[in-house]
Specification:
With about 650 residues, this protein is mainly beta.
């Protein structure tokens, strides 16, 4: 099973996934009512990875989450792929794992076939034919009701198309909410909240349904006649001075591993693992039909399972290298998402420039960056996840938000203070998107420390006679509770990760600066049910000591959880974090007050952060980037 594996952190191959499934079946752990929630690589110990030379035999284990509908029970398993045996089997009581893709499909079918739903639809709208009804599975959450603790539930949202390819999201069936038991896969009740007429609108976005499209756009071609500057070995990548391994799993989707930089022949580690651990989308309308909308898209739906097969010229432009994702459906059957990950180079403007007016010789270098991306569709919304590596040592992460707003119906002449009227009788509720990233640093080695950096002005006085002095003031973070923090615009707050044992050219610890981007605070009360389950939104920054069992900011199983799991619980231990193997967790949010221009499909919004070398290199690492060639000429440009 190891013949095609070139790095111990590469994701499971299709054959390895199927071997893991077979081992579990042969061990008698799979019944007709068992669902495979996920099968992914159980990552080896850090020591093995850091000591990997490329020649050792790689031990490969798989980690699986299974769920038995008949007993409403969740199980975790570890299997050895080399020995072809079950290593561990554990029952995890009282939890609901991620909803599977199969359940999403089956839930829609169950609602459409439900006599109770058909009766409510006929009563409210006079409609008997359900063939044009769209049913989006939505998580049930947990609002303190007994059934939410002992049943596997979904509370779908329903919409009505005017024809089989119409944009049904503009016609929400507002007053009807079916509740589905996913174990029995049947509607257990239909909640009716009144009658809202279907909005009398039609708003499409597909190319074959939008008339009078622009005719003045000329082709934009990107060519690399000599090929790309990166090399690929399996899921290992080398580009410029960078090297790393691409990962992918059903829950997190795209992950990056073992990110290193070759600094004049020395292979220097920066990040051991970088991933999206959780996200939540809470809505701000208290109406009975809206207040339950708060989706934990990673832990409840699985960002990897929702990944798109990316298309050349549409999702990615240029000379592209694609990577497939090998998963399985809930019955253990092979599921490969072709082109789940896209990688390419792109021009990014000026890298650096200076013109010496005395010599009249401009020196300019063009910036090129490597892009590693994946896009997931979670019912109505699309999320693009983009990692960028730069020639000057910067690492950037950006989420691109697009797709279709989750819309609600209003009665004629009605408006709502909790959303935006975007068409007659159609409104978009206010909402927020919160994301949490896990950044496991191994900066020039495993023991690292983190400083909180606040820029503050000096008090006027003898040492500041002109009132102009200010300085960056570092605070060493020594424990988990001390590290809990929020952004502060007044002090331009950032964070610096350092290795005290490795000194730079001026004798100071080598470091990387964490630079936050746009962010927000949760608008909901701290007592709101969704916030109890999403404690990670209480702070923008958290720091923990590395623990291989602490991977998800809202805990391992946020679906229908009662809260208190994950970062909130772990950091209450107030463990020491100085000069150890540290993990920085960053929560960042986007407050979306919708506008008419977000309809019928939303132009992309951007949010993310940057990691910048700060005393890590001897000087600008992009000083050696050669000048570009003039177009159609061999000689250098601006040199």
């Amino acid at each position: 099973m190891n013949s095609t594996i070139s790095h111990p952190l590469e994701p499971l191959t299709a054959a390895e996934v199927q071997l893991a499934v077979s081992i579990l079946k042969d061990a008698g752990k799979v019944t007709p009512t068992t669902r495979f929630v996920s099968v992914s690589l159980r990552e080896p110990k850090k020591e093995l990875v850091h000591g990997f030379s490329g020649t050792q035999v790689i031990p490969r284990d798989a980690f699986a989450v299974l769920f038995d509908n008949a007993t409403n029970s969740c199980f975790e398993a570890t299997v050895s792929l080399a020995k072809k045996e079950l290593v561990t089997w554990k029952h995890v009581p009282g939890v609901q794992p991620t909803m599977t893709v199969d359940e999403q499909v089956e839930c829609e079918q169950a609602v459409l076939a439900s006599p109770e739903f058909k009766t409510a639809l006929k009563k409210q709208y006079g409609i008997e034919d359900t063939s044009l009804v769209m049913v989006d599975i939505w998580s049930a959450g947990n609002y303190g009701q007994p059934e939410e603790s002992n049943r596997r539930l979904a509370r779908p949202l329903c919409f009505l198309r005017t024809d089989p390819t119409d944009n049904g999201y503009v016609r929400p069936i507002e007053g009807i909410r079916p509740v589905v038991d996913l174990n029995e896969m049947k509607v257990i009740r239909v909640e009716e909240y009144g009658h809202w007429p279907l909005p009398p609108v039609s708003a499409n976005y597909s190319a074959d349904r939008v008339p009078n499209q622009r005719a003045d756009i000329k082709p934009l071609e990107i060519t690399q006649s000599e090929g790309p500057s990166f090399t690929v070995d399996g899921y290992q990548v080398k580009w410029q001075n960078w090297s790393f391994t691409i990962g992918f799993n059903a829950r997190e989707g795209l992950t990056l591993h073992h990110i290193r930089y070759n600094d004049h022949g020395k292979d220097r580690s920066i990040l051991y693992r970088a991933s999206l651990t959780e996200m939540v989308v809470p809505y701000g309308d208290p109406a009975d039909t809206q207040y339950r909308k708060n989706a934990f898209d990673v832990g409840e739906y699985g960002m990897g399972m929702c990944a798109n097969s990316l298309t050349l010229g549409c999702d990615c432009l240029g000379l592209i290298r694609y990577f497939d994702a090998h998963l399985c459906n809930s019955r253990g059957e092979p599921l490969t998402i072709k082109n789940a990950i896209c990688m390419h180079e792109e021009d990014f403007g000026i890298l650096w420039k200076h013109t010496d007016r005395r010599l009249n010789v401009p020196e300019v270098r063009r910036s090129r960056r490597l892009v590693i991306s994946s896009v997931s569709t979670v019912e109505n919304y699309e999320y693009g996840f983009f990692w960028y590596l730069y020639q000057d040592g910067n690492i950037q992460f950006e989420i691109k938000l697009t797709g279709i707003l989750s819309l609600g119906a209003l009665k004629p002449g009605e408006t709502s203070p909790y959303g935006t009227l975007i068409a007659p009788q159609l409104y978009a509720p206010n909402h927020q998107h919160f994301f949490n990233m896990r950044l496991d640093f191994d900066l020039d080695g495993v023991p690292n420390s983190i400083y909180q950096i606040d820029v503050k002005p000096d008090e006027p006085g003898p040492k500041n006679p002109h009132g102009n002095a200010f300085s960056a003031q570092p605070t060493l973070l020594k424990s988990e509770k001390q590290a809990r923090a929020n952004l502060d615009l007044q002090t331009t707050r950032t964070w610096k990760i350092v290795n005290a044992a490795v000194k730079n050219v001026v004798g100071e610890p080598v470091g990387y600066k964490f630079m936050p981007g746009d962010n927000t605070f949760p608008m909901a009360s701290a007592d709101a049910w969704w916030r109890k389950r999403a404690g990670f939104v209480n702070n923008h920054v958290w720091v923990t000591p590395f623990n291989e069992n602490e991977n998800y900011a809202a805990g391992d199983y946020p679906n229908q959880s009662q809260g208190g799991d994950g970062l909130t619980s772990w950091t209450n231990a107030d463990r020491p974090i100085d000069n150890t193997d540290v993990v920085l967790w960053y929560t960042f949010g986007h407050t979306h007050i919708p506008r008419a221009e977000d309809y019928p499909v939303m132009p992309t919004a951007y949010i993310g952060f940057m990691l910048k070398p700060n005393g890590f290199f001897e000087m600008n690492p992009a000083n050696d980037v050669p000048p570009s060639a003039k177009k159609d000429e061999k000689k250098a440009c601006c040199h």
